[in-house]
Every structure is written in C-alpha cells, then in structure tokens.
Amino acid sequence: MRSSGKFFLIIIAGALILSACSKKKSSADYPIKPVPFTSVRLTDDFWAPRIKKNATVTIPIAFSYCESTGRVRNFEIAGKLDTGRFVGIYPFDDSDVFKIIEGASYSLQTFPDPKLDAYLDTLIYKIGAAQEDDGYLYTNRTIAEMHGGKGLHEWASPNRWEMDSVLSHELYNLGHLYEAAAAHYQATGKRTLLDIALKSADLVNKDFGWDRVKVYPGHQVIEMGLVKLYRVTGERKYLDLAKFFLDIRENGSTYNQAHKKVVDQKEAVGHSVRATYMYSGMADIAAIEKDEAYLDAITRIWEDLVFRKIYITGGIGATGGNEGFAEPYFLPNMSAYCETCASIGDIFVNHRLFLLHGETKYIDILEKTLYNSALSGVSLSADRFFYPNPLESNGQHNRQAWFGCACCPSNVARFVPAIPGYIYAATDEDLYINLFISNDAEIMLGHKKVRVTQKTDFPWNGYVEISVFPEKGGKFSLKIRIPGWVLNEAIPGGLYKFDDRSDQTYKIKVNGKIIKTEIENGYLEIERKWEKGDKVEVDFPMPVRKVVADERIKADIGKVAIQRGPLIYCAEWPDNNTGNVLNLVIDKDAAMSTEYVDTLLEGTQIIRTTGWQTKKTISGTIEKLPSENISLIPYALWNNRGPGQMMVWIPYMPGNAHPLPAPTIANRSRIRASKMTRLISAINDQAEPANSNDHSISYYHWWPDRDQWEWIQYDFDKPENVSKTKVYWFDDGPEGGCRIPDEWEILYLSGNIWKPVKAKTKYTITMDGWDSVQFVPVKTSALKIKVKLNKNFSGGLFEWIVE
Ligand SMILES: [Zn+2]
C-alpha cells in the first residue's frame, strides 16, 4: 500500500468525495455533496437485511457464476496462467467481474471480510496478468491473438478500437474496470486495481483524440468511469477524455444515442441502459465543467423521460426489441421491458440531477424507482434476478439464478451496498434528508461534523423521528424532503395522477412543538442553531391512493394502480381466489384497508379491497362473478412464491379486464405440444391480439427452433363434431426471432391414427389476422395442428380456436 497513513484514515472515515483527496484539488463539482454510504449505518428492518443478504448471498454466488462460466478463466488464459480459448458467449463478460469487484469493495466497507478481501487480491492479480504490456485489456482479443486471430468475437474489430458500431464493448468493459478500481481503492487503500485502470486509461488517452482514433463507445459507461478516475487522481486528462467520448457522438444510431451531438439531444431514445449511463456522464460533465449546453440537454431529456416515457413503478424502457425506449406514451404492461440495469441507471441520473439542482422532483423519481422497479430486480432470497420487470404477467415471467448476459445480477451486486448513500446530502450550510430509513449517520457540513439519526418504520409507516447531534452547537439548515406523494403529486409532470385529492397533510414538530414553514424546491427548511439531541418529528400520512394514467397511455385506460407511500401495489396469484388475477375488476370507488402481515413475504403491509372476477360467455359477452375479497402486495415483492398471474394496473371497467375464457371446445381441452412450456396456456385463453406483434397479451412460441415441423394437440373432454378451425400467428419481425410459418395443416384422431382433415378451403398464412380452414365434419376425440417453421426463423401463435 503506497498511500500515506493520513490518506488511509480519510478513506476509512468514508470520505468518498474524492475531490478532497486529489493531488490537484479541484473545487468544481456538484454544488451539493453526496454523503457517502460508508458514513451511514442502517438500523432498519427493510433495507439493512437486504444489504446484508447482498453481502452473504448475492456477491458470493455472483463470483461463483463468474468462476463456473469461465469469466474468471478468460483472465487466466489471457494472462498466460492457463491455456485455452475464450470461454463464454459475450465479449463483455469481463465487465461482470469488474462490477462484482465494485460491489464487493462497497460491501467490505460495511461488512469487513478478510477472506473476500484476499479473494479480490487474487482476482486483481489475474486481471493484471491479462493486461497487455501497453495497458490494453480485453480478454477476448488477447486470447484470440494467441490463436492467430481465431475466436475473435464478431462484435470486435480485427484491429483494436476500430469497431465503429453499437455492438463494440471494448470501451464498455473498461468503464466498469475504472468504476471498480475507484471503489476498490477507496475501500482498501490498495492501488493494485487502480494502477491497472490508470495504465489502461493512459493507453486509451494516448490512442484516442480529435486527431487520433475518433470512435465513440458502442455502449456507454466509460464516461462515468473516467470521471471517477479524475476524482481519484485529480488528473484533468481523464475528465477531458470523458467529455471527448461524449462530444464525438453524432451521425450514428439512436439505439446508442449517437444520432445527434449529445448537446443537441432532446429525447430519451434507444437502449435505456446505454442512455442512463450516458446521461449520468453528461450530468458529471455539466457539474464539473459548469457546461450550460450539457445542462440544457440533460434537463430536456429528463423531462421527455419523466413526462412521457416512465412506468408508474419507475421502470424505463418499454420494448424488448431495442431493450429501450419506445414512442411517447407507449407503455405496455405485460411486455414492459423495464430492465433492472435501466432502473439502477435511472437512479444514477436522478441522483446526479438532484446534486446539481437541489430539487425534490429528482428524488421523487429516485425513490419511486428504488422501492419498485429496481427492488423488483432481486428476490427476497437475494439469489434470483429479473432482467425485465413487467407490470403484468400470465406466469411466463420468473426470476432466474443467472443469465448468459449477466448485466443485471452484477449491477444488483454493486448497487445494493451503496443504497445508504442516497439518504443524505450536504453543503456547508444545508443538510438534506432525502430518504426516510432508520439509520445512524455522521455527516460533514463543510468542517462541521453532525451526527444524525432517523427512527422510522418506513415504508410501512410515515412517522419519522430525526435527531441531530452537532459536534459543536451551530447554525445550519435541515432540509427535509416532502415527497410528491404527500403533496397529491403521483409523479412530477403529471403522467400519472392520484384519482382524488387527499386532505391529509404532513405534520412537523421540533422538540415537540408543531412548526409551520414554507416548502422550497420541495424541501421543508428548518434553519436554527441546533443543539445536541434536538429532535424533529415528521409525520407523513400514508393513505391508500388510486392512481390513474394519462389517457394517451392506451394500456392503462379504464384502470387504476394502487399506491401507498412510495410503494406501488399489485395483485398476485397466491393471494387471490383460484390464482386468477388478470380477470379481476374493482370498483373505482372501492374502499381499501391496509394491514401489516408479519408472516407474509418476510413481513409486509398488504392492501385489502373487494372486486369481481370476470368471465366470457359462449355468446361472447362478459359476465361479473359474485363479489369477492382481493388482496394486494407491494409490486417489488411479487414472484417470491413462484411464477403466476400478476397485475399492477387493475381494471374498473369489465371490458378492460382479461376475462376468464368461455367453456369452448378448445378451452375445455387438454393441451399437448412438441415443446411444452408455461406459455402453452395462451393458445386457448380467448385473448385476441391487436396484430401479430402484440406483446400486451401472452402467446406461445417455439423459439429458438426453426426450419422444422412442430405440433400442438387438443385432447377433447368428450368426442366432438368439428368442421372449422382458426389460428392467429405470432410474428415479431423485423427485430424478433419469430415469423409466420411456411405451412400448416390440421389432423384428427381416427381410432389410434392421425389423419389429415379434408379441407374445403385453402390453408392461408396471414400476418395480423386470423387464418381459418373449413373441412368435412369429423367426430373425433383430438385435433392436432402441425406447423412448418420458417427456414431462418422460429414461430408461434396467440390462439387456436376449434368449432
Ligand atoms: Zn441488465
């Protein structure tokens, strides 16, 4: 360890704001300083156990997957510690190892663990071995070059850096390396990974520039990483390089936000993780360089995102095809993408914008995302992860232990330990309280040290007790965030609104006396000379609220979402009647009550109300079944009891529900198929798509199989006379992997033999509509549809009807 003893002490004290440690101290940075998570010790029952599980479960299993999938071995091979070819699917696999090192470094500061510390040393040794002499680090290319270029990933260029494409991850990996290096240095004081990162960054700085290589990163993140290296070292070249990588973006694809110069961008477009990482880098530059053009651009983009493109859960990225943003107000629920990484990225963006402007609207989005779409990304057991976080499910969604593309679990691993860092912020005179979580913190307001504690049962109860213990009595302002949901604002900008006004208002007491003060920028400011032990009590009412969406969001028409405090609720299968929730309807004025159930989902507040199941009749009308009790749980806690139906937006109009199917021949049949998956239940659920690429209802597919015959069979509950059938094909071209099939035919069971029906009409194959076939009537106990998949694509179907 080459850092001085004094320096190390500063690190241990948790001085994460590295400008203070810089060789060349830079005064320009965010006007409001974050309070590092290392200064905040959580004492609550909601987040503290999750952070502990991240340390004891998520990080160890994430490292074990990095070992078992070859991600670590790639460093060993590239470093000549082993022999072989590149293992794995993606050239960005290196980044997972870096991200988990970042998470482990954060975690070590809360949970010291000599074994983990030593394991990181071993990993860093391997990473160092894999780094080429001039600083280049990218295991896929290094290993390929050992084999005469064989095995170079198709997303990499034959020469270094030349891949001018959305697919290149050469610089993306390095961005995560730099973030990990800064974290590891702060956590341990060891320069091992930092030196590797600086050697790499110096090579990038030598090779790239306006008169040298002018290729922008395919996937952003190096911008944020370089800013962190700048803060650690005080070396301006890293900051300039970060700005260079932003400024050279133009004339490219919207997919990775290179369609215009970043300062000319006005809308949130393309891949949502790339977008949020880029906007975070832009906010850093805007803060440090006081760059007005950057500031204007990021403000406009934020408004587009929050006013038109965000889900009620805080999730962003509506479509899976581009893993990103769609048109304004296009926010389907069942196919909502809402990648976990994008939620985490959006928290990075909103935190930075708060540090720039000191307005609560950014924390309103941060809190909404944190408690809903980001938290949904990981199971209560901390060992299962969502990649997309949909707002509605027919049972086809289920958290996974790991993914081929493992960006989300590794992001969870590094995000969760840092959550306490979002609670407070400070200037020399102001202490901001942004989130309400029981904790004990030590905060520097300039040179004044103040200990602050919070006691609360948030998010279950809105009463918060804040105590301050300034080292020396002194004057400063306590700025307490009054959440938008307390002020009748469901989201800044009004994309979602509460259905009715609540007259319940917050109360604030200082040392037992009620005070009244103005709210400014969303903060209630209490300025006084504070003494040790002064106590502030805040009581935020938490009535159950119904939320309605802007009517331009088609998927939410005639529906309400239920919110209490920052939490969005959902109906999930285990809590409701026969496991059906998608067919539920509630009264728009239904009374709602709440109750804390300590035996459910490790303890949670539930909401009770009444509603009806709906059902289709044979004649096609929708009937309401007798009224019954409905129970709702926090959205983030769904899918902890297995896959099944779930719904956030609950219809109050029967026509907007997915009614139970009528008892038709198809619906009463037992289904078998060449590939049995949970999705098979889609084909006789009588939900009719709007077109062949409608992701708002469930469908069945054979992906990734192609160029072969597949089949589905209905076994009738009794022999039936049938003479007509119709089918609606799934086709998610041009982006997806399914197309309408090449051929199909219908067979019936005669004795023990399958025979083709005698068709009276042609077998047509249509996009966006039904294909029906009439045939000579047969009496049979089973019908089979055979489907020949396209040569190059797979296929699937929404519905198969028999008459
Ligand atoms: Zn991800």
How many separate helices? Answer: 16
Indicate the proportion of strand residues.
Answer: 15-25%
- Helix/strand-derived class? alpha+beta
Give the overall shape, derived from the CA principal axes: globular
Task: Report on the biggest sheet.
Answer: 12 strands, antiparallel
Radius of gyration: 28 Å
Helix content: 25-40%
Averaged pLDDT, please? 93
How would you describe what is shown here?
By secondary structure, this protein is α+β, with helices and mostly antiparallel strands. The chain is built from 16 helices and 32 strands. Strands 3, 10, 16, 17, 18, 19, 20, 21, 22, 23, 24 and 25 form a 12-stranded antiparallel beta sheet that branches. It has a 7-stranded antiparallel beta sheet with strand order 2-6-7-8-15-11-12, with no helix packed on it. The chain is globular and about 90 Å long. The structure holds zinc ion (ZN). The site of zinc ion has 7 residues, from helix 13 and helix 15.
